[in-house]
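Sequence in, structure out. Go.
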Amino acid sequence: MESKTLAAGLIALSLFGDSAQAFSPSSLILPGTATARAATTSAASSLRMGAPAAAEKGGKVKADAHDILLRVAKGEEAERTPVWLMRQAGRYMKDFKAYSNKYPFRMRSETPEIAIELSMQPFRAFGTDGIIMFSDILTPLPSMGVEFDVIKGTGPVIETPVRSMEQVKKLTPIDDPDKSTPFIRETLGALKKEAEGKATLLGFIGSPFTLAAYSVEGKANKNCFETKKMMHNDPAIMHAFLDHIADNIATYACHQIDCGAQVIQVFESWAHHLGPRDWGIFAKPYAERVINKIKEKHPDTPVIYFANGGSSYLEKQKDMPCDMLSIDWGVDMAEARKILGKMPVSGNVDPLVLMGPEEGVREAVRECIRGAGQHSHILNLGHGVIEPTPEESVAAFVDEAKKFRL
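Output:
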């Protein structure tokens, strides 16, 4: 097993070149932390510290509440509103920064010992009802022949954007996720053991349009220029690319479930670049294909769909084959409930509310839960936690969700 850890380090060095720090088991001992947190196999058990600390710091996990998020994601009623946060494992946490300041992103997300630790940190600190695997929506792209790097201060960068039919035809299938992304099984397998009897384990994928747009642009772009140019001038290329991604990302999602994920969230992170018509042509059909393929193989696994910026066409999402819709913060939850009826929903507090006073955070939680009403609702933000967010605000967010009753 130690050889696997060393291999992961060598892979990371090959990905990041001279910019990566030398990686060895001993190099994972972080300043200010116990040496037992070293990411070697012999120390892996101490990295996976589990629920005893979570119960003390985040509020006790009741035996009958450990699966509350899973039950609500399936559309069942529950004794209270379950809670987790998008990007809950992130740079707003001091413990997270001890890793992010030292190791490149792909080393962190593709080295199981580190990914496990980062996934567990918010559960231990706040007692969230969900534990989500620390990874990235772009993680499966290299398995399809699209390489990427994550540059600190810049974000994901794809050096060779996909902009021609010839490139699309050269894309590779995800035939064996255990071979192309071997770290996923080890990460989710360990997290499944950590979550058992304590919380629900979530996996996630990027939706085909979002992955295609990233691959065409090469990096984040406020106008999504190259993607929209392709959509309107060479739609055949875009549809062929979306076809390939949809079939293969569904395979990757099913692999996560096979490895232990109990819920899958599909992130349409770039929906804000699309109006209702284009979303209906280039995003919705391919997201639906992915969801249908997941449900064909795993009919009992809940699938959540999140269209960031898509609340302006929420009524067009209500017939999707997902089990739950996650809603961005651009619409009032009570209004979303009117549009969606009894459909299970997740969301949707404005992340910037967490920058305000504690009582404001707690009132936003109560207002959101009231707006969702008696029907199935998982409390979340309407987007991810941002870096300057005080940890105390996240603690208050989770605590109020667990205390408040309609």
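Check: The radius of gyration is 20 Å. The chain is about 45% helix and 10% strand.
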